[in-house]
Amino acid sequence: MTEVLLVATDRPQFGVLASTVRKFEALGARVYLAGSFHLEAEGIPEELAKVGLAGLHQLPRSLKHRSQALRRRMGKSPRGLRLWMQIGRDSWLRSRARRADVLVALDPSAVYTVWRLAEYNRTAPAKFGLAPALKAVEELKEQGSAAARRSSVLPPLHAITRDVRRSVDNLPAQLVRAATPRPVMRSGVGARLWRSAVTAPGMPIRVRAATSRYVAEGMQWAGRTSGAALTLADAAAKIPDLKLRSDLYYEGAMQEIRKGLSPRNLSKAVAAHLAYADAEYAKGRTDEAAEAINRALFLDFHRVLHIDQLSSPLAKDAEGFVTPMYRSKAYQALSRPRGRKVPAAPLPTDRPLRLLVATSANDNFLHLIKEHFADHPGVELRYLDLAANKHLKRISWAAPRMLKDRLAEGTSDYQEEVERLMRPYLDWADTVFLEWAAGPAGMLTTIDPGDTRIVVRLHSYEAFTRWPHMTDFSRVDDLVFVAPHVKDLTTSLVPMLRGEQAPRFHVLDNAMDLSGFNRPKPAEARFNLGLVGISQVAKDPKWAVDVLERVRKHDERYRLILVGGDMDPKTSQATREYRREFDRLIAPLEESGAVVKLGPTDDVPSKLVEIGTILSSSVREGCHVGLMEGAASGAVPVVRDWPFYAGKPNSARTLYPEGWVVTSPAEAAERILKVTATEEAWRAAGKLATEHALTVWDWPVVQKHFEKLFLEDR
Predict the structure, then answer these.
(1) pLDDT at residue 410, as a whole number
(2) What share of the chain is helix, strand, coil (3-state, %, to 5)?
(3) Domains in the chain, please, with CATH?
(4) Where are the beta strands (DSSP E) in 386-495?
(5) pLDDT band at residue 65, thresholds of 50, 70 and 90?
């Protein structure tokens, strides 16, 4: 016969209790109740008699005959701990708990007591609520033997003494907070008890939400980030209110994101926000719908998921990842192509082309373009840095305002502000070349461009952000990509780019002056591997260290030279963790001289003189400028088959010559050892790399493509 011990501090709902006891009996279980509420109060004995309990016990209701010191300590303790101090020495309770097969807390204040009792009976599942208790009895009946009855393992007793009185005091919902001290949440049983609490049937919506938030807070205190996120998600799934449900899902997802983790309930969180957006949009409440979509986009394209990790959901199925977003009625309305009223005007024949080159702060890849067209007789050039003007900067990255304007069909004050600030530039220019398909692209396509031609360049980073999904590409005439695989990814992500109003596509290499990199290398450079740029997780410099260790097993003269600034740990927790692991990995190698960190530099050509093999260790790239510069310097290129794109129609293998790309650190080491086996072989391979770089990627070659883009293509 299975024995179930119920512990209650408050008077339970006797009707529900009686019904559940009958279910326990049908499963062959006897039920005992220990209560600290007054069992002899008026009417209670009669109600309890109807329940059909196998045993009933009144727990101590005071600290009579206990010391003054204990009473003072109890007065300062959380309610859950106070109850244990009051009843923990009760012999009936301890004896029955040791024999019980299932221990059950009927209310929040009893959770701590049940957890403590479970320490004395480790084979008994500890549950919060009647429904989880019934399920535990069913499982025990299926298991049969007592040896199999072990659903959880509790921490040792000494863990109970730590942090018990650190619960938050004097705050709303003190009862719930007091019942969730760190020791409880650190144990699997305590965490499961509270997770089951937030899904208990019959709980009012607001109480369920508040309880889940306090439980999640307690789990965070105890270091259970994923448990906190799951608790909020479990509660959200039980809440019909669409706004509250989406809020809880969002809070749960952000718990994990802040710790550098990809949320396990990301798809549910996004779906909840889209459902809320659709409901609000159907009611005509476009501002609320836009806010919900903004949150959905923020979660779906958070950098922790796609940029600060070694992989991304987009690597597996980019189109499938965004499909739920584009099924939303509100999002369909928001992303509907608005088009332009008139086509872009033809090239002027009586004056130079007026070309406006625009960016927001980042002009790293514009210098040669600006210099060339500033001196071009057929072009009148102006340059606009949107970040240099506080008003333009504000509207360029105002995601919520952009979305609200789209859903409100352009009736918001945002479109008026964009029109007022940008129209003078559009009226002057024949062609606008906008660098980066990010916030400014979304801003600019909010308004009709008139007859001004709009050209936008998308590198690689933007494809992993929300901005292409907030850009009206029907108002863009030409979209420039830096590599074919980037074009493939972006077009699979954005349905508008596959529609009739999609812009013309171009693939143009970055503007690079590579001639200055071709300098003589000393003989000892043959043994120096180089990696230019280690400031992002996607560069994965640990892969390069793996290659180094493999070649050093053959010859300890090989070194790894790292050029560029370190990853910024403030970027995200995910970046911080990778940086910490990488620093720990290379510390002994730096000490021995096998790894040399040169740090950031404004003179990359001089650093490349000492590098004989240039590596690309990245998990993804657009076009790896550091590698191309290394190849131009005469260093032998060794390119990892970027995992994000490996095996796809376009990848590192289609971007670089045959033989440069390797599938593994072992293959990379094999190529390095073979090519650098002799100085002659190494210099010959380096010469071929230089020839390819200068004939394909150097500015005199690439500038012709840009001239064609601006002065011929229409």
Answers:
(1) 78
(2) 55, 10, 35
(3) 2-170 (3.40.50.720), 353-507 (3.40.50.2000), 515-697 (3.40.50.2000)
(4) 431-435, 453-458, 478-481
(5) low
